[in-house]
Amino acid sequence: xxxxxxxxxxxxxxxxxxxxxxxxxxxxxxxxxxxxxxxxxxxxxxxxxxxxxxxxxxxxxxxxxxxxxxxxxxxxxxxxxxxxxxxxxxxxxxxxxxxxxxxxxxxxxxxxxxxxxxxxxxxxxxxxxxxxxxxxxxxxxxxxxxxxxxxxxxxxxxxxxxxxxxxxxxxxxxxxxxxxxxxxxxxxxxxxxxxxxxxxxxxxxxxxxxxxxxxxxxxxxxxxxxxxxxxxxxxxxxxxxxxxxxxxxxxxxxxxxxxxxxxxxxxxxxxxxxxxxxxxxxxxxxxxxxxxxxxxxxxxxxxxxxxxxxxxxxxxxxxxxxxxxxxxxxxxxxxxxxxxxxxxxxxxxxxxxxxxxxxxxxxxxxxxxxxxxxxxxxxxxxxxxxxxxxxxxxxxxxxxxxxxxxxxxxxxxxxxxxxxxxxxxxxxxxxxxxxxxxxx
Length: 440
Description:
Strand order of the largest sheet: 9-8-7-6-10-11-12
Shape: globular
CATH topology of one domain: Rossmann fold
Structural class: alpha/beta
Order of helices and strands: HHEEEHEHEHHEHEEHEHEEHEHHHH
CATH architecture of one domain: 3-Layer(aba) Sandwich
Largest sheet: 7 strands, mixed
CATH superfamily of one domain: NAD(P)-binding Rossmann-like Domain
Number of helices: 14
Number of strands: 12
Radius of gyration: 21 Å
């Protein structure tokens, strides 16, 4: 069993200086190297054997596939795709598929490893995986996307399945994408398994509550953190960078709890109003205009300025590496709740913790999505259908329990939130690996 060593200097639990090795002042923004730094931090606390460390920090399988796709004009375009399975010691691999022109293999490897720690942090019996296709979905028709998706699914098909690796939606993929992948699997294998993917339409085995799951999980974590720090969520000022599905839903849920949304942004820029922004009006305006920029009753603000504005809670819900060595000293929020994957670099983590800013880590704050994906998989495997109320109740119970397990780890070992979550997750995967042993 993996054991945890107590550091020599006790630190405050929430917002305390991070227990990370001193690092050079120049930042490395490579996502996979950052992921490995965060793992190494936890491994040091756990005093893991070097061989076990190498197993846990290295992807189990990395698949690169070519995807010839017939375009609407009759020409064939060769696209490239990936599927990375990082670890499967605790169960089948689980992770989304994204379509984006700037995908790199290191990005997919980093996201796959994050899924390993995320599923372990909330203690659901999955491992971690991620996939992606290098393409520009905004420039592709629906028929082109379908042909590309089905070819990608057929290329990774030998490595996916309900008990092997279960894809889900991610950036620029959705329930329709999952329906195409499920159908391709069924037509190729002759097995009509709903559980091969999650995030499907309700008509073919999708789960109630999946669309709001990530945002709901985030709000639960923020609520619990506010209780611990005696911060009233009612009236708290919240700035959200990223007004996609997670950001827009989180804005609405926070507003329902009487918090004040003082800034919102998307890829074109942001808007701010110290008296508050109605997230439903912002959503309707964006549907018409394609952006929140220019909506009535709000002033324009850049994405960079939104990050450093005065607020109680900052929610990065867009890209990775947006809070860095360059702007961490200027962050004025009391709590940073990571809705996106990897928005805060290790250098920024150290600076924020030293300044007393609480960083609620992505492997817990955005784990609502994979938690409800697990619920969908369970329903599919057992032939069950849960209503939205049951899914919501189960999600809250899972996330709140995971939050308090993280806090217990923080207090026991005198570490800040990310270290607490990582130690908790890495220890669970290490224990599973050791108890299973090596084959042959």
